[in-house]
Amino acid sequence: MSEPAIQGEDTSEILFEEGIIGVPRARRFQLLERSGSPVRVLRCLDIEGFAIPTVDPLAADPQYRPEIGTRIADAVDLQEGDPILLLAVATIEPDGPKANLRAPLVINVRRRLAAQVILEDRSYPLRAPLRTTA
Q1: Which domain holds residue 84?
Q2: Is residue 118 included in any domain, yes or no?
């Protein structure tokens, strides 16, 4: 799955109509990225100082292909041909960065609608180490 680009200087907002899990009033975000960094930051426009570090889930699991159910497809108004961007919430831990593959962020790039989903497939870890390329 190729990943559509949303540039850091793009000031368009991304709307999570249902909010982020645990932070329901965090609904409007901007996706910021820095050249050369694998980390993208979702900066909240509703809560000052609140931001979520994210990574490409393929950096943790190259075979990552979660099933997106109809509820999430409806939440992001996914239509045939719409590009989607999957992101994993990242955490920095003493033994290295981790990606939450169980609760990805699904972004409809064309409509700028997003949702966070908790996958039923429990084989996806909450703290998957990122793979490094040497």
Answers
A1: 14-129
A2: yes
Note whether residue 4 is domain-resident.
no
What's the pTM value of the predicted model, to 2 decimals? 0.85
Rounded Cα distance between 12 and 15, Å, is 10
List Cβ neighbours of 65 (8 Å cut-off, separation of 6 or more): 1
Secondary structure of residue 71 in the 3-state scheme:
helix
* Domain at 109, CATH number: 2.30.290.10
DSSP code of residue 131: P
> What is the tens place of the pLDDT at every residue in 59-118?
999 999 998 889 889 999 999 999 999 999 999 888 888 999 999 999 999 999 999 999
